[in-house]
Amino acid sequence: MEKKIKILMCLVCLGLLVNTASVTAQAAPAVVSVSPSSVEESHGQTFTVIITVDPKGNEICAAQYVLYFDQRILNATLQSQGTFLSQDGAETFVPANIVNNSIGKIEYGESRTGEGLEHGVTTSGTLASITFEVIGTSGRSDFKLSDVILVDQNLENLETESKGGICTIGNVAGEPIITDSTVEEVYAMIETNPEEIILLDVRTEGEYNAEHLEIAGVELKHIPLSELEKRLGELDPSKKLIVYSKNGADSRTASEILAQHGFGLVYNMLGGIDEWRIKFPVSIQFVPTPAITVDPTPDVSPVVLSTPGEKGKLPGFEVVFAIMGLLAISYILIKNKSRGKIK
């Protein structure tokens, strides 16, 4: 009996990893917000923002998000679990609580467990809180929410609306020259006016040949960061420059170089190709590369070509929902066994 249960649990886990959950019908999108939406601080101070969830009448059993910030002026010191999913006394599990100050990225995922999966939370509350230390003397840091997913009691994704925030350090005048953009925002720009965009990959030659983004209707350009200043003439300053790297770190440096040389429409893609790969499906084509040996058959290496995927179907933290699926099936099996339905 135990062997059958383990097999069933593994099948559920595999299914959740392979298939993206569908978006369930609902009256209004649930809202995930950064609060307060605007913060003014100075060098050396610490402050806390909270991530709130307003279910808008939906039942929520699990939640996840990614929060991006400017690591040059802020340092995240602590991310703490809130009471949103446990407000009715239900137990919860937190499989993802990650702070990465090197690229300015925070990840969080939480699920109700046991009997808490029979019904979700419908009252607003705090999902998590994040404490920051101000390490810069002046500047602005957007708080950009990405990869936001809420799941209901049927293990289906809910339609959501995300509201970020901003932190201002010292006296900052004018509008920012560089715009930090999530992959969702980049998707929207590409979908609206692809002909007005240059998609600039600033990774190394090897990284580019291994995989890169290729989107119909968008001008593609590969210039390694180390060569960027020498090859600025290859870029059209009248177009929107969306810059990406592996995880968003090198693309920020490249964006600053472009801004310093007079490019006024520069967008740094937060999370880079790593985040794009999570959000949108990819297709793989194979292209020949020069053979190294005397073998007349050329070597073949993969190049991942990615195009915008179907809206509302975002895999997100696959592990989070695999775990949640296992917890759900475990609870159902145990419950049925206790009622004598499994023998």
Topology:
Blueprint: H1 2-18, E1 30-35, E2 38-41, E3 46-54, E4 62-68, E5 74-81, E6 92-100, E7 105-112, E8 125-134, E9 139-151, E10 157-158, E11 160-163, E12 165-169, E13 178-181, H2 183-192, E14 197-201, H3 205-210, E15 219-222, E16 240-244, H4 249-260, E17 266-269, H5 272-279, E18 282-289, E19 299-306, H6 318-338
Parallel strand pairs: 1-11, 2-12, 13-17, 14-15, 14-16, 16-17
Antiparallel strand pairs: 1-3, 3-8, 4-7, 4-9, 5-8, 6-7, 9-10, 9-12, 18-19
Q: For the CA atoms, what is the radius of gyration? A: 23 Å
DSSP strand tally: 19
Reported for the largest beta sheet, the result is:
7 strands, mixed
Low-confidence stretches: 3-24, 283-343
The percent range for helix content is: 10-25%
Strand proportion: 35-45%
The CATH topology label of the largest domain is: Immunoglobulin-like
Structural class, from helix and strand content?
alpha/beta
Description:
With 343 residues, the chain is an alpha/beta fold. The strands form four sheets. Strands 2, 4, 6, 7, 9, 10 and 12 form a seven-stranded mixed sheet that branches. Strands 5-8-3-1-11 form a five-stranded mixed sheet, with no helix packed on it. It has a five-stranded parallel sheet with strand order 13-17-16-14-15. It is built from six helices and 19 strands. The longest helix is centred in the C-terminal third of the chain and has 21 residues, at 318-338. It has helices at residues 2-18, 183-192, 205-210, 249-260, 272-279, 318-338, and strands spanning 30-35, 38-41, 46-54, 62-68, 74-81, 92-100, 105-112, 125-134, 139-151, 157-158, 160-163, 165-169, 178-181, 197-201, 219-222, 240-244, 266-269, 282-289, 299-306. 34% of the residues are buried. Residues 3-24 and 283-343 have low confidence and may be disordered. It is globular and about 60 Å long. The protein has two domains: 2-174 and 315-338, Immunoglobulin-like, CATH 2.60.40.680; 178-306, 3-Layer(aba) Sandwich (Oxidized Rhodanese, domain 1).
